[in-house]
Amino acid sequence: MPLVGIGDITRHAPAGVGAFNVILLEHAEAIVAGAEAADTPVVLQISENAVRYHGALAPIAVASLAVARAAAVPVAVHLDHATDRALVEEAVTLGLGSVMFDASALDDEANVAATADVVAWCHERGVWVEAELGEVGGKDGVHAPGARTKPHEAADYVARTGVDALAVAVGSSHAMTTKDAVLDLDLIAELHAAVPVPLVLHGSSGVPDDTLRAAVRHGMKKINIATHLNKAFTEAVRGHLDTHPSVVDSRAYVRVGRDAVAREVTHLLNVLS
Ligand code: G3H
Ligand code: ZN
């Protein structure tokens, strides 16, 4: 199955599309294994934070692309939360078919200008662009579900920037380790009616499964999940190390984490489909 563009996945998905963050090679392997078990397309995404962790984009991007090309289901590889234009250009050069350019920390006019510029550059190269309006909180680790994207501003933003998908603030917050986020489902429906491109839910780790299903029914399309997978990975590794205190070979416990992530991805893709 070839590496595909995220646009192909979102266009053909009957319901929600799972987009999961890759930090280590094992995340990419686990996400693809979980998607294969669910027989569902999936998005691997690499954030600017993950790039910072590795010190460069290329090693983790090239590894993710290789895992995607070998998958038995369609897989897209996407750059997530890039605030740096140079990183966007590097991602495209490496072969990523889509990027999120996150100018949401800027004021709205500056956000529009910077994003429109990135969109023009990417569209010349056939690359799909996601952007964000109405900052989804929690990127600094502080739970902040308060922001809301206004439908008329979202429609205006999409028209002025030409983005292919829009991340909106509807009650979720990044990096939650409990599943008790409350989403504004009426607002999701209003945004879906107002905006002609797919809507993206960030900070989905804190959203209960039933609410994820409802969010998709109300018009959310791309569902971004990172922290929940890290939690599954770390809990599994911790459990293994606790019960095998003399283990030395890192493959013995990393494999357990990888398997746990794969199981969660299968479960979540079934929730979203
Ligand atoms: O862009 C990535 C997502 O918004 C992940 O958020 O770690 O809260 O699931 P999360
Ligand atoms: Zn996010």
Written description of the protein model:
With 273 residues, this protein is α/β, with parallel strands linked by helices. Helix content is 50%, strand content 15%. It has 11 helices and 8 strands. The protein has helices at residues 6-12, 25-38, 48-54, 58-69, 85-94, 108-124, 151-161, 185-194, 209-217, 227-243, 250-272; strands spanning 17-21, 42-47, 75-82, 98-101, 128-133, 165-168, 199-201, 220-225. It has an 8-stranded parallel barrel with strand order 1-2-3-4-5-6-7-8, surrounded by 11 helices. Helix 6 links the parallel strand 4 and strand 5. Helix 2 (25-38) runs parallel beside helix 4, helix 2 (25-38) packs across helix 11 and helix 10 runs antiparallel to helix 11. The protein starts with 5 loop residues before the first helix and ends with a helix. The mean pLDDT is 96. Bound molecules: glyceraldehyde-3-phosphate and zinc ion (ZN). The site of glyceraldehyde-3-phosphate has 15 residues, from strand 3, strand 8 and helix 10. Its cofactor is Zn(2+). It comes from Planotetraspora mira. The active site is at 80 (proton donor).
